[in-house]
Structure formats: C-alpha cells, structure tokens
Design brief:
Layout lengths: L2 H4 L8 E4 L3 H10 L1 H5 L4 E3 L17 H7 L23 H17 L5 E4 L2 H8 L12 E3 L6 E3 L1 H6 L20 E3 L5 E3 L12
Helix pairs in contact: 5-6
C-alpha cells in the first residue's frame, strides 16, 4: 500500500517526529521519504525511544547515529541519550511520565498534523492503550482542552490503517516493565519486551 496515497491527511503533515533509534530512523527515511523530499522537517527526540533497557532498545551515541543518518538534525535529541536512568529508566512511573510529556509537547506544537514514528510498546503503554503492528499506523486527535487522545474510527475499526494491528484494548502486565511476579509480595527483574519482535538498533 502506498502511504502517500492512502495515509489520511498525508498532504497536511507539517512535522515528522521520530525516535532516535536506528530502526525508527530507517523507517522514517524509507516510509516517509516523499514528505522529507517535499521539505517536511524531521525531529528525532529521545522522549519517543522504546521502553526497555535491553541492548536493542538502548540506542547508540548520537555522533554515531548522525553519521549514519546525515539528512537528519539531531540537535533536538536530549544530550542524555542513550542513557537509561532517571527519566529514561525502565519503570512504569518513568515510562508513563514520558508519555505525558510527549502528549503535552505534541499538543503545544503549532502544526495541525504531525507524523510520529516510534515503538509499539511505548505507544501502547504511554501514549494510547492500543496495540500496534510493525509498519502500521493509527490516526488520533486530541480531545478538546485535554492532552488525551481519541483514535479515528477509520483506523480503530480496521485494526490500524494497514489492517495489521490487533483490535481491542491491551492488558498491561508487570512484564511490560521488566518484572515477573513470583509471589504476592515480591517481584524480580525479567528482560521481556516487544523488542524481541523488532530489529536491533
């Protein structure tokens, strides 16, 4: 399917925001090339990185990534990247706060249509309780006077714009935050995430 012809509002995209991991930068470069060639600016931002602290989700140093993707300006990426401590830590509190920050930032932007290229687990847990298949898309509007999102019925009923994504509301489990329940009182770390279904950074 040609996104340029089938993506709703494609001609109105005023900004592309992407996670600064290799797989999302490559998706931006290949999947939205017509927008980039037409002058749509791209902002890589660390806030949109994947959740876990597994090697495939940690990213690489900006000078290394910038050399591989010279067409993008990485000045918008936090100098803390690819650190996974503090606000970037693999915990429920940090991930959800990052989602709040992302939604508030999007809401504050002057563009009316923004394309975001990011990761399924971060989207599902921190942005909208919706499941995403690789290389699929969904379209959202902000609810009036809030930072909460409402999905278009077009992509909700179809299971994503490409029809590849599971329908329904996902259940959030301790394993989504790297934990495995071993008793009523304790948890232990467990390296489980949707990163297993994605390519390394």
């Amino acid at each position: 399917m040609d996104l340029q012809k089938n993506l709703p509002l494609a001609s109105e995209v005023g900004l592309i925001v992407t996670s600064p991991l290799r797989r999302t930068l490559a998706t931006t470069r290949l999947g939205l090339d017509w927008l980039i060639k037409g002058g749509t600016p791209v902002q890589p931002r660390a806030e949109w990185q994947e959740n876990s602290d597994m090697p495939c989700d940690q990213g690489s140093a900006i000078d290394m990534i910038a050399a591989e993707f010279p067409e993008f300006n990485f000045d918008t990426v936090s100098p803390e990247f690819p650190d996974k401590t503090g606000r970037w830590k693999f915990t429920e509190e940090a991930i959800r706060q990052r989602g709040i920050d992302c939604r508030k930032w999007l809401r504050s932007r002057p563009e009316t249509v923004i394309a975001v290229v990011t990761h399924s687990a971060f989207l599902r847990i921190a942005i909208s309780p919706t499941r995403f298949a690789n290389a699929d898309y969904r379209v959202f509007d902000f609810l009036e006077n809030t930072d909460e999102l409402k999905q278009w019925s077009l992509t909700e009923e179809r299971g994503g714009g490409m029809g590849r994504s599971p329908k329904g509301v996902p259940v959030i489990l301790p394993t989504d935050f790297g934990l495995s329940e071993v008793s009523d009182e304790a948890t232990v770390p467990k390296a489980v995430s949707e990163a297993a279904d994605e390519l390394p950074t």
